[in-house]
Amino acid sequence: MPRHNIAAYAALCASVLFWGLSFTATKVALTHLAPFTILFLRFALACSVLVPVAAAGRLRGLGLADHARIFGISILFPGCYFALETFALRLTSATSASLISAAIPMAVLALCAAVARERPPLRNVLGVAASLAGVCLLVGLRGGAGSPMNSGDALMLGAVASAAAYMVAASRLCRSVSPLALTTLQMFWGTLFFLPFFLADLPEWGLVPAAPLLAVASLGLFATVGAFLAYNFALSRVPAQTASLFINAVPVVAVFGAHLALNESVAVTQLAGGAMILASVYATASRPARERVSNTS
């Protein structure tokens, strides 16, 4: 692994850990809170933590064009991605959603090739393919994953497109905007994005026990502040194609986190799938290589 990228890869691992464990926290929160209540509260909490820190000076150097670009990518992620994912999970199985979300790295590779005119290294393409095969083993092909595409699957494809567009755009934006400033403004716009949905379905706070509220707090502090800061930092150091490949390790953490915290069973095929995903991510990131190859046509 290239020495100058160790911090970036460590940040990617941290974001994978936080996002993977967020599935268990979300499951606990959903026992008493509506999806958009959870989304609004987690981003509002993240915003309240980051704004005072960033307001000291990190946001003052940004121009109007920078703010406009950050607003645009914030609509994509967290806005569109989490909204589309939430509605998708109401209409399709979690297995189908997991398989479709595993297409994010491939979507990033395709978008870089089409928009940024970057030809991906063969090792990255093979890594994505191996990682996708590992996800198939991890989540299994049950639960309707082999059924014809429904409206929920289509919404999840929209979420994949939103995430891919965000990763490519944020990778370029992170070259001129600090990860702290970018993350803070993402949290601010994400809070405003989910506010109308939150107000439309206010919970009865007196009936909500402590566990779901603690779960939301962990989502805000770790899966949002920690994960977004770590991922945006990584995007400032490594290409979007490389960073996106780590996303396929999120289901590994999610499955084993649920096993430890919620007593959910883990099959041998899931162990094999998790090992394949981790091996493909490591193999792609471990050797120095030309991450970008100009398209000389």
SSE blueprint and pairings:
Layout: H1 6-29, H2 35-54, H3 64-91, H4 94-101, H5 104-114, E1 118-119, H6 122-139, H7 151-173, H8 179-200, H9 210-235, H10 240-245, H11 250-262, H12 268-286, E2 293-294
Antiparallel strand pairs: 1-2
* Rg over alpha carbons: 19 Å
The amount of helix comes to over 70%
The number of helical segments is 12
What overall geometry do the principal axes of the alpha carbons give?
globular
Average pLDDT metric = 80
> What are the secondary-structure elements, in order, as H or E?
HHHHHEHHHHHHHE
Search tags:
1% strand, two-stranded antiparallel ribbon, single chain, 2 strands, 297 residues, 12 helices, mainly alpha
Account of the protein in words:
- The chain is mostly helical and 297 residues long.
- 73% of the residues lie in helices and 1% in strands.
- The chain contains twelve helices and two strands.
- The chain has helices spanning 6-29, 35-54, 64-91, 94-101, 104-114, 122-139, 151-173, 179-200, 210-235, 240-245, 250-262, 268-286, and strands at residues 118-119, 293-294.
- A two-stranded antiparallel sheet has the order 1-2.
- Helix 2 packs across helix 9 and helix 4 (94-101) runs parallel beside helix 7.
- The longest helix has 28 residues, at 64-91.
- The chain is globular, with a radius of gyration of 19 Å.
